[in-house]
Design goal:
Length: 1504
Amino acid sequence: MPDSDTAAQFDRNIRDVHVVMKAFCKLGMKPLPEGSTDLKSQAMRTKLLSLHLIHTIMCSHMHLFFLNTPTLFTASSTPANESIDAKNSHFPLPSTLITTTVDTNTPTLFIHAIKPYLCLCLTRNAVSVVPQVFDVSMEIFGKVFVDLRVFLKREISVIFTEILLPILESKSTLITFHQRTSLLKILSSLLGSSPDAGGGRMLVEIYLNYDCDPEATTTKENIWERFVTLLSRLVTQHHVGGSGGGSPNPGPNSSSPNYQGGSLNAASLTSFTKEQLKELYSTNGDFAELKRRGVDVLVKGVLGPLVLWGWDKWVVSNGDMQSQQQQSTEQLNSGEDAASLELLSDGVSGLSGAASAGITGSNSGLNSDDPMQFEVLRTKKQNLMEGIKAFNIKPKKGIQLLLDNKSIASRTSNEIATFLLNTEGLDKIMIGEFLGEPAEENVAIMHAFVDHQDFANVPFVTALRNFLQRFRLPGEAQKIDRYMLKFAERFVLQNPGKFSSADTAYVLAYSVIMLNTDQHNAQVKKRMTKADFLKNNRGIDGEQDLPVDLMEGIYDEIRTNEIVLKDEQPAVSEPDKLPTSVRFEKASESMAIKTEERLKASNQRRAQLGSTGSLANSGSSASNEEDAPFNQSGNSGVFYSATHHEHLKSMFEIVWMSVFTALSSYLQDAEDADSVALALEGFKHAITLACMFDLDLERKAFMSTLGKFAQISVGSEIRPKNLEAVKVLLEMSRVLGARLGDGWMEIVLCISNLEKLQSPEGSDRSSTDKRRDSVATKKENKYSEEAVALATSQSMTLLVDKIFTSSVRLSGPAIVGFVKALCAVSWDEITSSETSTHPRMYCLQRLVEISYYNMNRIRVEWSQLWSILGPHFNKVATHSNSQISFFALDKLRQLAMKFLELEELPNFKFQRDFLRPFEYVLGASRDFKMKEMALMCLQQLVQGKSKALKSGWKTLFGSLEKASKDENEQVVTLAFDLVKMLFKSHFESVSVNGAFPDYVNCLVSFCKNRRFTKTSLQSVELMKQTVPVAIASTSAANGHNETAVTTVSTTDDPNFRYMFPILFGFYEVTMTCELEVRARGLTYLFDVLKSQARELSRDSWEVIAKGVLFPIFDDLKLSRQEHRKIDEREDLTVWLSTTLVQALRLLVDLFTNQFEILQFACEGVLEIMMACMSQENETLARIGSTCLHQFIENNLEKFDSALWDRICKTFVNLFASTSPNLLFFDYHAHIPDAPGGVFAPPEATSLNQSSSPNFPSDALVFVDGVPQLTGRAKPDKSEFQGIILKCVLHLLVVQTLHEILTTSRIYRSMSVKHLLLLIGCFERSYRFAEAFNKDTELRLALFKMGFMKQLPNLLKQECASISAYISILFKMVVDEQQDRVESRLEIAGKLIPLCHQVLCNFNAMEPGIKNRNLNAWKPVIILILNALTELDDTLFQQYLPVLFEEAMSILLQPALDLEVRIALHAFVIRVGFSCGIVKDPVGAEDAAPVSVLVSASANEAAAI
């Protein structure tokens, strides 16, 4: 047949099909007579037959609905006499119509032609209370949803939200029990049971197309969320009345066969008995069965299909799970666990109908079902709903929130008005309140809101009615007035000529509002009549009356039909006297009408938004009222197909709480095996979804709840569901172990309880316990022997063992989670049974096994594991129960032996970390036996695996160091024996692997143990013996291990990395050990330095000096309160007077012997000496002075000018730092009263009477010899003692320098420059003391402040300083060395004026003061006279005129001392000799040399 004939035949046939389908739909939607329930009645039989035929056609000829049938959309109508060719139901298709794909955008598909009738038939019958009608309607809906959902997006949404979900929710008392159970059965079959249903994909598409649709702005349209929430509510709902359990009560279909699939026969069309009619309209039934069906839908219709659909896609997209999937597949193929097959079997391979037809279409700019874009849509919708919710509470705040989240594009009146007009879910009361506000913005939005509505060619009352459907009119008169003004303006503008002006429309509108209130308000007693209404509105149209017919029509319409919001229309009262069947039928009819109105509004809104962006006139009626809700051709919105499994994450996050509540509640109450299995299957699916997408909170919730049901213990009730929960947990650990994370805790707890049940403590209890438990069992039925037998069976044991053996296949994060859980449960086991005879260590043993299994993992993963295992072994090995600790240590030893078999590359530290538990045990355990065992374990490790030890040597010595500090002698001795063994047998391995510093630290630790002096001394000796061995092995170590890591220094000295640890160890011994040990250590330290001085480089010596030598003396630089390095148990004085003195002498000796090498460090030595001389310990200070003197004298031939400069600087600093500058302050500001009423204080002998540390001081400024006191603060009383100590210390420094300068070798080695620098210190000291002694007011002020009990003075300092100064100057004047001779005049220029000044001051002293101070000044006077006498003739004659008068004035002093007279006699004789009066001084040849007398006088003055 030609194609044209075939096409013509096809057109005729398709028209026949359309006519037949349309007829069936119309027959099916015909209402039944009121109260008709007779299944044999003509109307009922017609309805059932038509519905059955529709279902049959959809089952067998679904492909017809996808055909392109433009002939059905032409102007010509189908001939009435044409019919379908009965002989050829599968009629031939023209070649141009044969296609493998269907474009959803084609508006001429057959489904679009039949859609209005099919949907109307479905809505009219899906609410029927007749079981047969309801069941077949649900079957039809199932076919529509499975195969035609792409074309009926909006229609399906309305059916779900208005029919199916309300039936599930069952808020109304007119929803029959059969409707609920039947709907659950259909949903279960639709989503889960049908092999071609593809329930998972359908659920995802529901979520994508409704829950993620921003245009669906009400929570009712979140179908996925509402569906699961209602299922959960159904399962958790508690019912009062009805059958609570057991077998289902017989329903209305119990006496007549249920409708099965498409079967329909005469036998099934029987009439209901009265009892069946009563049950037909019953809302009660077997609620236990209802819950079971709800759980069945939730598990097998929701969770199961989702897992089936998404599992394979997820495995492919997660490469890290391939090995886990392979493992699971192997387990499944082995047939050992059939339950896992259900979890991981392939999902539905494809969908029938719509999916298999290859439907294509536009996705409105979205890239298919891209998860990221849909997440954005979901967020956008969520923001919109939050804004709507806020608006419904407080409109102004809601508008702002909507603007912030961009739900409203901009803050313009037009945008906001459009949003308020077109958005569903907004509270119309709040819309009315917001638009009625008098604010300028609100008024502008209200005007735009009205302008968006179309009133053209619409009757006035209808227009007003439509206008008031958009919002609820506020009750305030001013707000009503503004609304009516704008409405009147808009109506007159769109309907010119109807009224003379807008005023007429405004008055009439206001009058209609008042009439509506008058006629329908229950509080109005006397209502307005028609005459009253006409009277009230006379002359409103430009002083003319409106037509009477118009006004009367308005009155009649308002009286009979109130203007009220549809949502607020009062429900039609159903008198109780109405028959039950009538009430149910009316409720079903109301639901159907509401559904159709919703569909009609949805279609109109979509069409008008797409064309004009505003709502059209809702008052215009469709040409065919019956078809009005479905008269839109083409596809009902863009439908998105699901291809990405990532959507499951968002879906599960939305509903997981509802699922969790339902499953946990149901499992709690379930007892029969089927119910338990169903609930556990739901848990399994939920956990799978949570693990697939790493949803921690969700996974924890489900796993913890499942773990509670899996808790079993001896003596408690063990139900079958507990064991089933155990099986599920174990199954999940094998299948999803890589994703369980913290969920391993419940699994390990379950395994631990199983083992406890299997242990002898659990099964072989004492006879007394068994008898007691048997009585309790008989009475309370709390112990199931059968359950225990199953829990302790061989199969359960093998299942548990397989979990541990397969741990090697877990991913890194998974094994970490597993080990964490095992450690936590292990510790719980130990703590709960620590007091028993046989403590539980099952999980500890399993931890050891896992360590063996996983020891060959990559080092990164193993390090993470050991960071968990190590601390756990630390706790267990130090437990107070010896059985536990011995077991842990023994297992640690075994693991260490195994671990040391693995090769470790240089510079890694895996062995060091692994062996740390031994170190922890030796440091933290309180049981000395455990410490002995730990040491034995270490000894075995060394003996068996010494060649494999690398970084482990460090931890080994760290462990021995911990043992060295123990209080038990046996432990210390055993540890030291092990150290000696290591030194003798394994020293080379220790040094090569960089553990030599740790070895030395270990020996030092033995030295520090004061309880066992013998061991400490042996340790010091071993350190000494190590030196030659270490030096001998230096070259060998460098040759065998060139890459060995240096320990401390960056120097290239090959000996340094061995020498420095030893030297530093001796330093630690010196600073911390007891006297005998530290003395020996100090001696060995300097012996090593002397013997190895030539072998060390300059850089090495620098490090040694800064790190070893000089730190010994650090305490000299600290105050009494700051001493840190000396052991607090020992008196600092003892250490200073013994060890420090020895160290100072050894230090000087070392520098003397190796001065050429150590010359760079002389500055440090001088600083030490300076610090020592500043000590409060006078003995130590004098020793420091002696050592400094010795250091200078022994090495002065090696000193260069720079070093002499440094020595001079040292003394200058000493003089400056010890000067008591705080004695000078501005006393003129305030002078306090004398303490104790003393007004004439006696003179103090001196301030220089005690020692002082190196206190900081303020510099004192002298101008022309006068100290400047202005602005200087007075000292606090707390500073008095420090000032006194500083005075004494300064005097000691003066004496020390004088002694050094009077040493002939030192004096001759110094240049004039350096001598002048040093004696300048004497001069400054003298000027300082002189200024203080002369200022009597200052001294009196100090006395009154309580500084001293006597008037203070610095007489000793003044005399000692001037004596030393004059003696050295005189020595330089008479010296015949070349440089001295060259500087003689300069020196004499300093000496003679100074002598003259001193003589003048002495002669000018007041008699009282002179008498008190005569003994102090006598040596000074004698020194001056002797010095002048010693001058050569030239200088003597030059300066004699200056000095002679003052010298002779001494004769005027009363009671001259003999020594003074002798000196004065010598001076006069020398004067006579110089002037030629005396040619040869009498007795000159017998007299001692004058220079000797000068020196003696100076020493006497210093001593005083």
